[in-house]
Design goal:
Layout (H helix, E strand, L loop, with lengths): L1 E2 L15 E12 L4 E7 L4 E3 L2 E3 L6 H13 L1 E16 L4 E15 L7 H5 L2 E6 L1 H14 L8 H22 L2
Parallel strand pairs: 1-6, 2-7
Antiparallel strand pairs: 2-3, 2-5, 3-4, 3-8, 6-7
């Protein structure tokens, strides 16, 4: 669970109209290079992991496959589910549940299918060592800029979430 208190902010009460979002995201690794896919949004100086919101009646796995393909151009095979993260973004009256997966690269088409927001943010995919990816996400806290789509409040939730995902992935490698 990630909540306001993790950022030194006071929690605000949720309303009856609290928006609940379901998403899937996680680690895409290339067994040939031992690197993972990381999205870099050049125009806002942010590194994050691939993933996004569920559409219609998709399963968690279908959402993950679609989002990874759209954002990275990669076709993947899910290896395991790491768990679920709940983001309690009470300042904007939102809760987001993200299913977290680890997937192996099957094919990199190198063709991104970005939403306008992602294109405007200058999103590209970088393949990084796990420690390099973790460091890039952590440094993003100091470099990320608000844009016309999201606030710094939302960005910091994304960054903490993705740090936790990479750390959990690293721990799973030791098992």
């Amino acid at each position: 669970v990630i909540k306001n208190e993790d950022f030194g902010l006071e929690a605000t009460p949720y309303t009856d109209n609290c928006y609940v979002r379901y998403a899937s995201r996680g680690i895409v690794f290339d067994p040939a290079t031992n690197k993972i896919a990381v999205e870099y949004k050049a125009n806002i100086n942010e590194y994050k992991l691939p993933g996004g919101g569920r559409e219609g009646n998709e399963t968690e796995e279908e959402t993950f496959h679609r989002e990874v393909f759209e954002e990275s151009g990669c076709k993947v095979k899910i290896v395991k589910k790491l768990g679920t993260i709940l983001e309690e973004r009470s300042n904007i009256d939102m809760k987001q549940y993200s299913a977290i997966f680890v997937a192996e690269l099957v094919e990199d088409t190198k063709e991104l299918h970005l939403e306008q927001k992602e294109a405007d943010e200058g999103m590209v995919v970088k393949w990084m060592d796990v420690d390099e990816a973790l460091e890039a996400v952590k440094k993003s806290h100091d470099t990320v800029k608000a844009d016309g789509y999201e606030s710094l409040y939302n960005a910091h939730f994304v960054l903490v979430r993705d740090e936790k995902i990479i750390e959990a992935y690293k721990e799973s490698l030791d098992e």
